[in-house]
Specification:
Blueprint: H1 3-11, E1 20-25, E2 32-37, E3 51-52, E4 58-66, H2 69-78, H3 88-99, E5 109-117, E6 122-127, E7 136-139, E8 144-147, H4 150-156, H5 165-174, E9 188-189, E10 194-198, E11 204-208, H6 212-221, H7 231-245, E12 253-256, H8 261-274, E13 279-285, H9 296-306, E14 309-315, H10 317-330, H11 339-350, E15 355-357, H12 362-365, H13 371-382, H14 389-403, H15 414-417, H16 421-429, H17 443-453, H18 455-463, H19 469-495, E16 500-502, H20 508-519, H21 526-531, H22 553-557, H23 571-580
Helix pairs in contact: 1-4, 2-3, 5-17, 6-20, 7-8, 7-20, 8-9, 11-19, 13-16, 13-19, 16-18, 16-19
Length: 605
């Protein structure tokens, strides 16, 4: 075990845990654990990590929060387990001693942890069901390294920086690097809802214990319930329970409040429990002032009506420009999104907030995106052409140059991709379509990347045989856009400022309840979500067009750079992200080999 490498990996994540650090290496020098602490539950030294059981047979390093840890602790105490701290970390240790790998089924929260089992001479790693917390591994056959960030593994110096075409091409396809890939061949993510065991024989076995696809298929196969049940009461109870669990903390809890339904609903339930002890924050941008994208006025009104403490944090193009280099340095993998979370997390830190609730996940559960109507409609319309792949491809090649000057080139691919839910989803969500990426990156590099990504097949696998259209789109949004973009960005952008972001809508019991209602044809909508707290929020929320939590990226960075051609939408911003990451870009108009990747700076985030 290289102690210096382990220390470097831990130090690279200092911003994730500024409240303490720890390092443990086994007596035989074969196993080591490092930890950076953000103290939220049990602020005392007793909660420090790496933590061991009293007999030293189990040792853990852990990132996240277990919201039902008190109930689990009570059960363990009834079985004779003794505790030396008030932390959820120690609950994980004893729960593993009691149940082994099956412990994951009892956990409600967000987590990525590793437990060294001295008796069995093996390491047990686990990641939460939806992948809220990241967990990356690099296994070279002789040493297994793992961390919460790609950059931390690189900072250790023991992992090569061999570029992975799947990561670079995946970024241009989606605006994010899709799991399990990273920019580097030797680093991958453990799948959400999975655990990994590495025994003394050196063989690693990964097991998936939770799958959104399998959950939806199981729920579809259940006997349907009568439609006459009180669906609204069921929804209200599930929301209240989830948000109550997400308030568990020994530090004050804040809230990221936009003028959208999701965060306002979270504010209503959380405010009912905390009152003015809940501190909400809203970002304001001068470019959006007095437009439909101005979040500040309605958010302030919601906070006032709910009686919670509120702050509006204004920012300008100049302020963003000044912090943009720090933003890119903190970014763990290239992403089109995240600037909004970065800015509001900075405001939270400046306000002394360590924990912030977010409305992420509401759109995926309650069909808040246009994809929920557009994807099935496109698939139905284009399905007759799915059997004629060659003709559809020829139509795309002929139509694209004619359409490109006037509209999105995606329209040229309607017949080629639109005939299935998975293909229509790719059309809806893609930044660049597969045939376009070779115009940005080296064609040979792109060919290998597309082959490794196998995007269309992976989308089909994510869908499985889900028959209900809304559940099918929800499965794709949860497993792709939410997991690899929104949740990942929330993690690195929040933790870059030492702020833990919690997402009450991304909760297994709530997910199961909503999926059952959808399967029972009692599908709750965003308006139902608002009615769950009717009378407490301004009526304007139900009529205001959906805008999302926007940052004026197009206005600030949407113009082409000197010598570049102008591109549609956010593609110019994507090329700037690509440039910051030194990806193997193809010079415009000139084919060639991709240059060697310089890699990202090893800056703590």
């Amino acid at each position: 075990m290289d102690r210096a490498e382990l220390q470097r990996i831990g130090d690279a994540m200092a911003a994730r845990g500024p409240d303490g650090s720890g390092l443990w290496i086994s007596p035989d020098n074969r196993v080591g654990l490092a930890h950076r602490r953000l103290a939220i539950i049990d602020l005392s030294a007793a909660g420090a990590q790496p933590m061991s059981t009293e007999d030293g047979q189990l040792r853990i390093t852990y990132n996240g929060e277990i919201y039902n840890y008190r109930a689990l602790r009570s059960d363990l105490e009834s079985k004779g387990y003794r505790f030396r701290s008030e932390s959820d970390t120690e609950v994980l240790l004893h729960l593993y001693a009691d149940r082994g790998p099956d412990m994951v089924h009892a956990l409600r929260g967000m987590f990525a942890f590793a437990i060294w089992d001295e008796r069995r001479h093996g390491m047990f790693l686990a990641r939460d069901p939806f992948g809220i917390k990241p967990l990356y591994v690099a296994d070279d056959g002789s040493t297994l390294r793992f961390a919460s960030q790609v950059k931390a593994l690189l900072a250790g110096g023991g992992v090569p920086r061999r570029e992975d075409p799947a990561g670079s091409v995946g970024f241009l396809l989606w605006g994010f690097v899709p799991e399990p890939f990273s920019l580097y061949r030797d680093i991958r993510s453990i799948a959400a809802g999975s655990h990994l065991w590495i025994g003394k024989d050196g063989l690693a076995a990964e097991t998936q214990y939770f799958s959104t696809r399998e959950e939806m298929l199981r729920i579809e196969g259940e006997e349907r319930r009568p439609a006459g049940g009180d669906a609204m009461a069921e929804l209200r109870a599930a929301l209240d329970e989830s948000i109550d669990h997400h308030l568990v903390a020994d530090v004050p809890v804040g809230l990221f409040l936009s003028s959208g339904i999701d965060s306002c609903v979270v504010a209503s339930f959380a405010g009912a429990r905390l009152g003015d002890r809940l501190h909400s924050l809203t970002l304001g941008f001068s470019e959006f002032k007095n437009t439909e994208y101005d979040e500040t006025v309605l958010a302030a009104r919601v906070a006032a009506d709910l009686g919670i403490k509120h702050s509006t944090c204004w920012t300008s193009r100049e302020q963003v420009d000044a912090g943009l280099s720090s933003y890119f340095e903190a970014m763990d993998q290239p992403s089109m999104d995240g600037l909004n979370t970065w800015l509001v997390s900075k405001a939270a830190k400046d306000s002394g907030i360590k924990v912030a609730l977010s409305g992420l996940g509401g759109d995926e559960l309650f069909a808040g995106y246009p994809s929920f109507t557009q994807v099935p409609a496109t698939a139905r319309w284009a399905s007759p052409f799915a059997k004629h792949a060659g003709i559809s491809r020829a139509v795309r090649r002929a139509a694209e140059p004619l359409l490109a000057p006037f509209t999105s080139p995606k329209y040229a691919g309607l017949l080629e991709y639109g005939g299935s839910v998975s293909g229509a989803y790719l059309l809806r969500r893609a930044l660049y379509m597969p045939w376009e990426v070779a115009r940005v990156l080296d064609p040979a590099f792109v060919e290998e990347g597309l082959k490794r990504l196998d995007t269309e097949d992976r989308l089909r696998v994510a869908l499985g045989n889900i028959s209900h259209e809304r559940l099918a789109v929800s499965a794709l949004e949860l497993d792709w856009y939410l997991r690899s973009q929104l949740l990942r960005d929330s993690d690195w952008a929040g933790m870059a400022h030492s702020v833990e972001i919690r997402v009450p809508f991304v909760d297994v019991p709530l997910f199961r309840m909503v999926a059952r209602q959808v399967a029972d044809e009692r599908a709750p909508t965003k308006k139902d979500l608002l009615r769950a707290v009717s009378g407490e929020l301004p009526a304007l929320l139900s009529t205001r067009p959906k805008t999302g939590f926007n940052v004026p990226v197009r206005e600030w960075f949407g113009t082409s750079l000197p010598g570049e051609r102008a591109e549609r939408g956010l593609r110019t911003w994507a090329r700037r992200v690509l440039d910051k990451w030194n990806l193997p870009a193809k010079p415009q108009g000139r084919p060639g080999k991709p240059p060697k990747m310089a890699g990202a700076p090893n800056v703590p985030s």
